[in-house]
Design goal:
Length: 425
């Protein structure tokens, strides 16, 4: 094993942070390849809980080089806060590297994010208003400011002035906001940020990563969010602005597809979603609330309560197909401990016809009803189990069903929030 990609197979929040943290102990490098601080990975180490938004989850191991790739958009104030928080809890960020090609989030991106969400006519998508989408828009519109630009005052000033003039006009004239940016103040503020992160910046992170690949070092690629929030293959337009899928690791880190050896799909034993958009297996009322409370289903970034539902096998098939999963990692199995029976969606029913493929049209998806199969619960505490053989029979049957739907073997099962609460197969 040289390069392993870890992806979320649902709408994010599958527990990738914990799994990345566990796997990182055997790695030489961990790479974050897309997204911004609109996502969060929670890692529990003893009595300490860490919420990471930009820094890769391998940061807790001194020997692991942690790289933020070119596909990530960075709010410098956020990453500096994260570094400070780690240091306050006894961890150094000395092993952190930041791609000079990563794009920078500015205050006008956040204002645009909020203004667009407020004005959206077809329903709000539930953006975190962290400026992620507008920053990616600037990137693809070739108007973005990259980390490297911050170290050339002339170029940075020119790009900043142009962007402020454009965004001010758009916000004031179209969105009706009264905003005025102090160019001198922003310029100096971001120069200060640039100076603070300079020791972490590398000119070509892709070259660094490929050097590790060439020497057979062990590399873990982690994305943010999940497959169903992918801008191309998720429930568009209720998606993020980048590609969390395994293919996104190639563009977001600058590696060749044939350098990837394994693709691990992290899947929660049930399903959650934050924000708007279709959610076929969503449970309204008591059971949904029970899942939320037992699973502590509140956003790591925003604190928003997550919508909860039964496991969706149609989504699982879609994720397995798009990502090319080599194995499955099931998290939060222990949350289902108290249920007498558990439902698993195996297909959708659309206008009286059963379908097993995931509809690409969300208007069609909104009319789909889940077709469920019920599996008896185990009603036992799984939190202290260390071996697969020790699991209750019905828990094994449930896992076998998920594996069947994914057409991939299960390699790990999480039965609690801590590092030690893991079963390796």
């Amino acid at each position: 094993m040289t390069v392993t990609v870890i992806v979320g197979t649902q709408w994010g929040d599958e527990g990738k942070g914990k799994i990345t943290d566990i796997l990182a102990s055997d790695m030489d490098m961990v790479v974050r390849y897309q997204g911004g601080n609109n996502a969060g990975h929670t890692v529990v180490i003893g009595d300490k809980t860490f919420k990471l938004h930009l820094i890769p989850s391998g940061i807790f191991y001194d020997k692991v080089l942690c790289v933020i790739g070119n596909g990530v958009v960075i709010d410098p104030s956020v990453i500096l806060d994260e570094i400070g928080s780690l240091q306050n809890k006894g961890y150094t960020a000395a092993s952190l590297r930041i791609s000079s090609q990563a794009h920078v989030i500015f205050p006008y991106h956040k204002d645009l994010d909020a203004a667009q969400e407020e004005k959206r006519e077809a329903g709000r998508i539930g953006t975190t208003c962290r400026g992620i989408g507008p920053c990616y828009i600037d990137k693809y519109n070739r108007r973005g400011i990259r980390i490297s630009d911050l170290y050339d005052k002339k170029i940075f000033r020119e790009k900043l002035e142009w962007n402020i003039n454009e965004k001010s006009f758009l916000l004031n004239q179209f969105y009706g906001m009264e905003v005025k940016y102090d160019i001198d103040s922003l310029f100096e503020q971001f120069l200060t940020y640039a100076d603070a992160i300079k020791k972490y910046v590398v000119s070509d992170s892709s070259y660094l990563i490929n050097e590790y690949i060439a020497t057979k070092k062990r590399i873990l690629m982690e994305g943010a969010q999940g497959m169903m929030l992918d801008v191309d293959h998720g429930t568009y337009p209720f998606v993020t602005s980048s590609n969390p899928i395994s293919g996104g690791a190639c563009t977001g880190a600058g590696i060749a597809p044939n350098s990837i050896d394994e693709i691990l799909g992290v899947v929660k034993a049930y399903v959650t979603r934050v924000g708007g958009g279709p959610f076929p297996t969503e449970i309204e009322g008591g059971i949904g609330e029970m899942l939320r409370e037992r699973g502590h289903e509140y956003g790591a970034t925003t604190g928003r309560p997550r919508r909860c539902g039964w496991f969706d096998g149609v989504v699982m098939r879609h994720a397995a197909q798009i990502n090319g999963l080599t194995s499955l990692v099931v998290t939060k199995l222990d949350v289902l401990d108290s249920f007498e029976s558990i439902k698993v969606c195996t297909a959708y029913r659309y206008k009286g016809k059963e379908i097993k493929g995931f509809p690409s049209d969300i208007y069609k998806l909104n009319e789909c009803e889940p077709v469920y199969e019920e599996i008896l619960g185990w009603r036992e505490d799984l939190s202290k189990i260390k071996k697969y053989e020790e699991l209750p029979l019905n828990a094994k049957r449930y896992l076998e069903k998920l594996s069947e739907l994914a057409a991939a073997p299960i390699s790990m099962v999480s039965v609690g929030a801590e590092r030690t609460q893991i079963i390796r197969l």
